[in-house]
Amino acid sequence: MRKLQYVFMALAALCFAIPAFAQSGSAVIDMAPIGVGLGMGLAAGLCGLGQGRAVGSTTEALARNPGTRAGLMTFLIIGLAFIESLTLFTFAMIIIKVK
User: Considering the domain 2-98 in this protein, what is its CATH number?
Assistant: First the structure.
């Protein structure tokens, strides 16, 4: 785990070293696509984890008490819609910021 941490720190240093060592006459490097990729990847990944956890918890609750199916499904669908909207809002903010 420690080696992986060192690898990520080295990659971060390399990403931020490009503008620091640039000469005054060189062109500006556009880092927006990298930010868009990281932002959308984080949003989609973390929302996927949240959805998996919500579905897993609902499945456990149904296994323990099958009589609460209607109430649980209503809350599950609403919760999944809210979680998915976070990814869509992130996508919209990224599109607005890039243009």
Answer: 1.20.20.10
